[in-house]
Amino acid sequence: MEDLGEIVGEFLMESHENLDQIDRDLVALEQEPGSRDLISRIFRAIHTIKGTSGFLAFSRLETLAHAGESLLSRLRDGVQPVTPTTITTLLATIDGVRSLLEAIEQDGNEGDVDVDSIITAVHAQMNAPAEAAAAPVASTGAVEAPEPLEEKPVRPAPEPVEGQRKPLGEMLVESGAAAPSDVGSALQQQLEGDERKLGAILLEEGKAQPAAVSEALQAQAPKRSVADSAIRVDVDLLDGLMNLVGELVLARNQLVRGVMETGDSGLVRSAQRLGMITSELQEGIMKTRMQPIEHIWSKLPRVIRDLSQSLGKQVELVMEGKETELDRSLLEAVKDPLTHLVRNAVDHGIEEADKRVAAGKPAVGTLTLRAYHEGGHVAVDVADDGAGMDVDRIAAKAVEKGLLRAEQIATMDKREIMAMVFQPGFSTAAKVTNVSGRGVGMDVVKTNIERIGGAVSVDSTLGEGTVWRLTIPLTLAIIQALTVDCGDQRYVVPQVAVLELVFIDGQSTKIEYASGAPVYRLRGKLLPLVRLDRALGLDVGGDQGVYIMVLHADGRRFGLVVDRVLNTEEVVVKALNSRFKDIGLYAGATILGDGKVGLILDVSSLARRSHLTADSDRENLVGTSRASGGPANGERLLVTAVGERRVAIPLDAVTRLEEFPRDRIEHAGSREVVQYRGQILPLVRLSHLLGAYSETEEGDTVSVVVYSEGERSVALVVDRIVDIAENSTTARREAEEDGLVGTAVIQQRVTELLDVRRAILAADPNFYTEVPDPMLVEA
Amino acid sequence: MASRQFATFEVADQLFGVEVHTVQEVLSYNEYTPVPLAPPAVGGLFNLRGQVIAAVDLRVQLGLVRQAMQGPVMNVILRGDGEPVSLLVDRIGEVVDLDDEAFEGPPDTLSGPTRELVTGTFKMDGRLMLALDVNQAVDTYRATT
């Protein structure tokens, strides 16, 4: 844009703003076709564009704007009614103007944008009496001849005053600064051809005080004074200032820390003052970058209108909290995901009018956009009162796609299941439309929102509607974070991901292991744990005196085990050198209070990676213990509960621990079986085998221990997985009972050792016929 | 006669050099943040006036044992492609003017990782300086064998 004159630049910027406003007003006009205010406002805006383009010699732009203006003047004068078709034509005109402006911005001239077809359409509108007859408003005007095409542009010269400002005379009379008769005679003079303004006439004739007139003029034009007090600032300049403030925050943090150590009260006071000023400055600079979310919402009424028309749906848009402000760069990043959610809601959420009526809902669907502050974040809801999402269908789809195992569904709550729609390639749309349903989109929405440190979630009630919620940080550059220690290094965790902190003292709170996978019982539910030191490939520390940070990411909750949690701090996010992007565990870097560089952890990739490693860890565990050969002192045992008895199974005999829904158990002959990973898995109930009373018949699921060898697997049904223990073989004796190889004292309790071979043969008598495994007999 | 200016430094007693215009600055720094799971040649990150700089351990790149990273280590900070990157070296030498005539390709007997990092040899008085290929030297994903 440098080679364009400043005037053209200003014109482009102003026109773009005007066009956005016109878009909104046109859509609003469709809702209330009678609003003269709206028509006048649109008219004025288009008139301004036409005037300036004529002045700048953009002749095609002028012609196009003129055509739109002619149509509008007919609407304004009531010659023609406002119909959806006229609105569509006018919107097309606005789009034409927009593409012309874009061409001008890029190439400096109007390029080869096609305006003639639009102009023809506009003229066709003005010559369409059939339409006009449809609406009673225009029944009188329809007979009037359409305006000739060559008609001189209407110049509504003094008009901008109308409807917006009070006439000056009226104000002067009201404030008592001028007598009604004086104002009347002055107006009369104007009508008789006096070119002077009303205030000037009154002043020159001494009918009013200069101070009173200028006061009235100022009161009359409040808009102007706002325009005068605002300036346009280059975003780069603001970004530069933002960076400097970031530096200042760092320097302040370092200084404050240093000063605190000296303990000099005078210095401490100065440092505190500096701290306060820095915070205020930071806030101020942030404010300059803040823009109301209305900025990106303004395009949505148009999107919704076009889309709902093409789909034949009726959608009313409600916007709440459009003054909520967000950092400019964030607004940009949120724009596309938000548009996608809105399109999706209109396309899939809100039903066709007849379906809605049949369901007892109003024919017009409501789409609500809601923005509000929530604990240092901005939440943006896209809520519709449409069909809602079917959790069972999503669950079925997820299983079908192999994203979840059927038995996992039972333990997941509704929202966790619905979060599956954010998985790549996931779409429950029955049919693919050109709007959505192709299975691309929701995962992109999620990636984009998470890239800016935000989160996205969905909640839905079948038949009542769906709420998509975006949680967005207020700003990109500075985030609230927790600093944690792991090993001898310090790491930074964005606070947005942190739900709570738990201290593990090893007594009342402790980390437990399920087949090698660390878990913690958080209010009765098992929370999978990720050891940060392990995830980072460092030396793995102990389980006592550590902290669990309960984090959420990707719709999952997990606990991150760290050595120490230090404090919350505002940190300035620095982009990390591109060579570290591949590692994926870091979201960026920052300068800590002591001047050292700290790595900011990427919580969602940590979650993803650790879910993978949890699986492979378990397999490694099984693999290594098997490789190490037969049972020896210190073998690892899986302790299970069967009735009131504790039964231990050598861990190297275990492939996986699973939960199966009780209704998945089928019968083959006299045996119980279950379908598992494309195989028929024979079940053996240890309670039957050992003659114990089972205690949990009423549960929905059964806990099983899967043992596989080669192609074959069997499942041993237990009541409960208790623990994993080392068998130090303090007291052991041979058993007299069938199915057991002996008993031992494990964790101060008498525990029976299962004869695995015997149990397996009970489930599948042919299990060993091909590949006998002598190692197992010893177990 | 064309001549070029080189900033020189030593690693394991061998003199290396990079063209002066590729160097942003030279400084010693003693607090590096290790990056777990990063390639072994990454010595760590440090704070250069508010900018986070990655330090590449030239010793590792040359197939040697890594810097101990205890106490101050010298950094040759290269302008890099868009973002500065630092080379960790043992000692900083002088800036020297070298004639193109003093230049020869790397000796045939030079092999191993060093061979891939070096563009040629400058014959100085009583010493040989190996000219580093800057891009290769900071490429931490280069296979070091």
TrEMBL record, chain A:
Pfam families with a match to the protein in the record: CheW, H-kinase_dim, HATPase_c, Hpt
PROSITE patterns: CHEW, HIS_KIN, HPT
GO molecular function, one term: phosphorelay sensor kinase activity
Enzyme nomenclature, EC number: 2.7.13.3
Chief place of localization: membrane
Domain of life per record: Bacteria
Annotated Histidine kinase domain residues: 267-476
Enzyme class: transferase
Every HPt domain range: 1-104
Keyword Phosphoprotein among record annotations: yes
Region of interest (Disordered), residue spans: 144-164
Record SMART domains: CheW, H-kinase_dim, HATPase_c, HPT
GO biological process: chemotaxis
Keywords: Kinase, Phosphoprotein, Transferase, Two-component regulatory system
Name of the protein described by the UniProt record: histidine kinase
Organism name: Actinoplanes nipponensis
UniProtKB/TrEMBL annotation, chain B:
Record GO cellular component, one term: cytosol
Listed Pfam families: CheW
Domain (CheW-like) ranges: 3-143
Domain of life: Bacteria
Cross-referenced SUPFAM superfamilies: CheW-like (SSF50341)
InterPro entries noted in UniProt: CheW, CheW-like_dom_sf, CheW-lke_dom
Gene Ontology terms describing biological process: chemotaxis; signal transduction
PANTHER family in the cross-refs: CHEMOTAXIS PROTEIN CHEW (PTHR22617:SF23), CHEMOTAXIS SENSOR HISTIDINE KINASE-RELATED (PTHR22617)
Protein name per the record: Chemotaxis protein CheW
Organism per entry: Actinoplanes nipponensis
